[in-house]
């Protein structure tokens, strides 16, 4: 018996036992697509991790109105911004309780010290918590926060002032992102004094709607409703993440009512799901991109002619048809067509193997070369089947003499190795965190992102100047021309090949009410969900 099957059996027994004990309570079981990388969201970039952490356990100063990209008050009940866009004063919410757990009992409410702790840990190299559990904060660094921030100060227990070195147009929305989740400074102090700081990131404590109970790796995460949640106690009593990587198994569990909501259905299963009288499927366009990126620090992908050849060698329409099955649109630019500043004048590279072979010959590779294609081991909203996509690309490359080996790793290891730059080419993607083009253009392809381990590791001064200037301007009319020019440069330089913008679908049992889709992809929030 494989270790995965044994884990699944153990998880099933544990879940059945828990449900039997809680027969009178409302328990929602969510079949997730993979395991979280950890429980401190600032360390990570994957939606799988954020679903299990920041969206259940934590809050941020700013939240997003459900089903929209509009920022609304969270742990900050209001804020003021100076006319020059450099000083943000946040007025914090009173009477917000941190979770009480077997490993921590808070003695005070949430206050400004928790805000300073949560940001200084990521920012200050001399902070005693900066290096704990690895000290890697990809979002904070990729977004250039170390250079954007000038100071974060506490005026009193319920007032925090962020002063910036330069204007940052999407700053309020950025504070609603998962990396900006607020953790307890009191809990951190307790763990540090006890000599067990690593427990802080393994046994999470937040202010969010659900209290973490336990985690059986690669099997189950258990939560209970937070009875003191500042935004109202959740409608369900227990929340269970049943980690189920296989989409066919997730569908089977949904039909058997072992899960009430599942992640990332196989597109081929959607018609059957919609036809089942016990199920319903919510679907909607999302701000995302699935792409094939080239490590521009490694030969031969440091040569733009090779990258253009790759773009012309693959039959994107055939890939899209076989992988997405109509659940999305072919991608030309990094951002989807429904996001402002999309440059409709940029035209996709044609599928032209002969032209690709000529470009390779011009670059000094008349007989092709050998490379790799890294394929994700899990489904993502922007790519329902990375292995199938890799196989299609592999077959297309073989036609121009390029021998590509498909490589994969466990999801957390995959992301870590990409950030280290171990790959030559990699299938990845992005679901937006906010409704601003900056969240694509700067976070994925700026020079700051390259320094911190972006998939393409591409730093182009002209592009970087444009997207850096754009994020400092206050009006869309000023920003749009800069982003349009940036898209032209990206198209010419091909650090990555955009493949598709997908439609996101969330299947669930008919008795599930209160779940809302987000235009930001597939964040799963369960505090308003109920079972009828």
Structure write-up:
With 532 residues, the chain is an alpha+beta fold. Among the domains are: 55-194, Alpha-Beta Complex (Dipeptide-binding Protein, domain 1), CATH 3.90.76.10; 288-503, Dipeptide-binding Protein, domain 3, CATH 3.10.105. Helices cover 32% and strands 21% of the residues. The protein has helices at 3-21, 47-52, 112-123, 138-142, 145-148, 171-174, 185-193, 198-202, 247-255, 270-275, 304-313, 316-324, 353-362, 386-398, 411-420, 438-445, 447-451, 461-470, 476-493; strands at 27-32, 62-64, 71-73, 76-81, 87-92, 149-156, 159-164, 210-216, 220-225, 238-243, 261-262, 279-285, 288-294, 328-330, 370-374, 403-407, 425-431, 496-509, 512-513, 530-531. Strands 8-9-10-1-11 form a 5-stranded mixed sheet, covered by helices on one side. Helix 18 (461-470) runs antiparallel to helix 19 (476-493). The longest helix is centred in the first third of the chain and has 19 residues, at 3-21. The protein starts with a helix and ends with a strand.
Tags for this model:
single chain, 532 residues, alpha+beta, Dipeptide-binding Protein, domain 1, Dipeptide-binding Protein, domain 3, 5-stranded mixed sheet, 20 strands, 32% helix
In summary, what is this structure?
With 532 residues, the chain is α+β, with helices and mostly antiparallel strands.
Q: What is the mean pLDDT?
A: 94
Spatially, the strands of the biggest sheet line up as 8-9-10-1-11
| Beta-strand residue fraction | 15-25%
Distance between the termini: 38 Å
The parts where pLDDT drops under 50 for at least 5 residues are 1-21
Query: How would a textbook summarize the main sheet?
Result: 5 strands, mixed
Q: How does CATH name the architecture of the domain at 288-503?
A: Roll
User: What is the helical fraction, as a range of percent?
Assistant: 25-40%
Per the principal axes of the C-alpha atoms, what is the gross shape? globular
Rounded radius of gyration (Å): 23 Å
Secondary structure tally, helices? 19
Name the CATH class of the domain at 288-503.
Answer: Alpha Beta
CATH superfamily of the domain at 288-503: Dipeptide-binding Protein, Domain 3
What is the chains' assembly state? single chain
Sheet/helix structural class: alpha+beta
Report the CATH topology name of the domain at 288-503: Dipeptide-binding Protein, domain 3
Counting DSSP E segments of at least 2 residues, the number of strands comes to 20
């Amino acid at each position: 018996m494989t270790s995965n099957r044994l884990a699944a059996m153990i998880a099933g027994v544990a879940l059945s036992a828990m449900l039997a004990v809680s027969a009178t309570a409302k328990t929602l079981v969510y079949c997730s697509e993979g395991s979280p990388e950890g429980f401190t969201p600032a360390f990570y970039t994957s939606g799988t991790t954020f679903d299990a952490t920041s969206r259940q356990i934590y809050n941020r100063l700013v939240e997003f109105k459900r089903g929209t990209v509009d920022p609304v008050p969270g742990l900050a009940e209001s804020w003021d911004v100076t006319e020059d866009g450099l000083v943000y004063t946040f007025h914090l919410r009173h009477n917000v309780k941190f979770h009480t757990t077997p490993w921590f009992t808070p003695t005070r409410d949430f206050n400004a010290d928790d805000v300073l702790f949560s940001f200084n840990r990521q920012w200050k190299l001399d902070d005693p918590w900066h290096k704990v559990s690895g000290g890697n904060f990809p979002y904070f660094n990729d977004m250039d926060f170390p250079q954007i921030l000038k100071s974060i100060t506490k005026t009193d227990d319920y007032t925090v002032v962020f002063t910036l070195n330069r204007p940052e147009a999407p700053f309020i929305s950025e504070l609603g992102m998962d990396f900006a989740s607020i953790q307890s400074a009191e809990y951190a102090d307790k763990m540090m004094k006890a000599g067990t700081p690593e427990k802080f990131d393994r046994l999470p404590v937040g202010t969010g709607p659900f209290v973490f109970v336990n985690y059986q790796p690669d099997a189950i995460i258990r939560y209970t409703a937070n009875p003191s949640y500042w935004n109202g106690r959740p409608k369900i009593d227990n929340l269970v993440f049943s980690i189920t990587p296989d989409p066919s198994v997730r569908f089977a569990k949904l039909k058997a009512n072992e899960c009430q909501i599942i992640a990332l259905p196989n597109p081929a299963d959607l018609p059957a799901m919609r036809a089942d009288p016990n199920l319903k499927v919510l679907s909607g366009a999302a701000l995302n991109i699935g792409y094939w990126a080239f490590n521009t620090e490694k030969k031969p992908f440091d040569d733009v002619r090779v990258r253009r050849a790759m773009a012309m060698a693959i039959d994107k329409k055939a890939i899209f048809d076989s992988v997405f099955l109509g659940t999305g649109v072919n991608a030309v630019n990094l951002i989807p067509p429904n996001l402002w500043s999309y440059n409709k004048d940029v035209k996709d590279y044609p599928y032209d193997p002969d032209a690709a072979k000529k470009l390779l010959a011009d670059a000094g590779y008349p007989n092709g070369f050998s490379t790799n294609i890294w394929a994700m081991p899990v489904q993502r909203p922007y790519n329902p089947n990375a292995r199938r996509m890799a196989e299609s690309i592999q077959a297309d490359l073989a036609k121009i003499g390029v021998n590509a080996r498909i490589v994969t790793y466990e999801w957390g290891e995959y992301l870590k190795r990409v950030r280290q730059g171990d790959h030559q080419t990699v299938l990845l993607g992005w679901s937006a965190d906010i409704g601003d083009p900056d969240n694509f253009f700067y976070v994925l392809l700026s020079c700051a992102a390259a320094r911190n381990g972006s998939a393409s590791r591409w730093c182009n001064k002209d592009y970087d100047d444009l997207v850096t200037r754009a994020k400092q301007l206050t009006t869309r009319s000023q920003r749009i021309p800069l982003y349009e020019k940036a898209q032209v440069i990206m198209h010419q330089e091909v650090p990555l090949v955009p493949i598709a913008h997908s439609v996101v679908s969330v299947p669930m049992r008919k008795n599930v009410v209160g779940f809302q889709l987000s235009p930001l992809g597939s964040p799963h929030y369960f505090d308003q969900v109920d079972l009828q």
